[in-house]
Structures are given as C-alpha cells and as structure tokens.
Design brief:
about 220 residues; alpha+beta; five-stranded antiparallel sheet; three-stranded antiparallel sheet; 8 strands; about 35% helix; about 30% strand; elongated
C-alpha cells in the first residue's frame, strides 16, 4: 500500500485549524445575535409590564379618590403638602340616616368624616375613617363642627381618634397635592388633585378637578 496516498486522503477528510477557528467565530456571532435579540425582547417586556402596572394602579386609585370626593357633603381642609406637611384632604363623607332621620340629621359626626392623606415615606395614598365596633359607638356618634376639620392640626387629631383606621387608596404615589376651590356664586365647591405615580422610573401624572355633586350647608 502507498502510505503517502493514504495520509493525503486522511488529511483531506478533516478541517484545518483555520477552518475550525472560523467556524467557532461564526457560531459565536450567531449566539451573540440571538442573545442580543432575547435581551431586547426582555427589556421591552419589562418596560411594558411596568407601564401597564403604573396605568392600572393609577386608574384604580384615581377612581376611588373621585368616588370619595364627588360624593362628599362638605370639605373642611385640603393641603398641597408643603413644608414637610403631607398633602391631605378632610371631608364630611355622608350624612348617614339614623332613626327617624331617613335623610340624615344635618350634623357631622366622627363616623361620617374621612381623611385622604399622602405618605411620602411609603409613596402611598391612605384613606382614614372610623370603623365601629361594639365598644366605640359613642365615639362614632360624637358631633364635629366646621372648626374641627379646617386645618392640619384637626387632620392629625382625627387620625388619633380611637377606632380610626387606614386603608390604602393607592401605591407608587410619588407626589400628591390637594387644593380646595370654594364655590363661586351659584356654583359648587370642588377639590383639585395633582398626583404623580412612579414605577421603576416610569412616571405618570394625573390632574383633575372634582366637584361635589350634592354638598350640604357647612356644619356649624
């Protein structure tokens, strides 16, 4: 047998070092392109998910704020959250019918008052209200005057009343402002709100004016 011919054929059936390196380079480029496309899709998905979470959360909290304030009977105090004081609004939510007074008694009571307040430390919006139980009925029936709900001190005092608890109205609320617009002649009182939401750098700004549908005369 001619060994020279055998060795030549053997070498012709494999790959040279240059060919192997070139093949590895092509493979690396393909995998790199695939990884880049996957990363791009992943970032797009995360961004879309964050935007959807932001929009869903803001819509839900705005709907609750609108429902609360549009049905309010009287707004005692609203603040824009300046000088370290949280943005908040204190209002008479409803004149609850009781006994023979099927349309309410025209008197503001602890159980009928609400407070919406922004907590900057947790980026949350809270609703404070009185929750009755078997032992605090007298507290809930206590009457409040207009002067008991017209400043920041009154808002803080309301939060300290036994039986007043907080529920979350909104999360990821980075900034909040409330402003009371007194009723002009022949008009109705209203509350302006300005809320900024933030989820992982995605921001959404909500602003509007909520007019009270059926306000009652100011409590004495």
């Amino acid at each position: 047998m001619n060994h020279a011919i055998f060795e030549k054929r053997k070498c012709a059936g494999g790959f040279t070092l240059l060919e192997l390196c070139f093949g590895l380079l092509i493979t690396a480029m393909v995998f790199g392109a695939v990884a880049g496309i996957a990363t791009a899709f992943s970032k797009t998905w995360v961004a879309t998910e964050g935007t959807q979470m932001l929009q869903a959360g803001s819509r839900q909290s705005i709907a609750q704020v609108e429902r609360e304030l549009r049905s309010a009977k009287f707004v005692g105090f609203a603040s824009e959250g300046k000088s370290g004081d949280p943005a908040r609004v204190v209002y008479w939510a409803d004149d609850t019918p009781s006994g023979a007074n099927m349309t309410g008694d025209g008197k503001m009571q602890v159980s009928e008052v609400r407070l919406i307040e922004h907590d900057a430390s947790s980026d949350s919006l809270f609703l404070y209200k009185f929750v009755p139980n078997g032992s605090n009925a007298a507290t809930g029936a206590s009457e409040l005057k207009k002067s008991d709900t017209d400043d920041a001190t009154d808002a803080a005092n309301f939060k300290r009343i036994s039986g007043v608890t907080a529920q979350t109205l909104g999360r990821n609320v980075h900034e909040a402002k409330f402003k009371l617009k007194d009723a002009k002649k022949g008009g109705l009182p209203a509350v302006e709100y300005d809320l900024k939401y933030d989820v992982d750098g995605e921001e959404q700004h909500e602003h509007g004016t909520l007019t009270l549908r059926a306000p009652l005369p100011d409590p004495l």
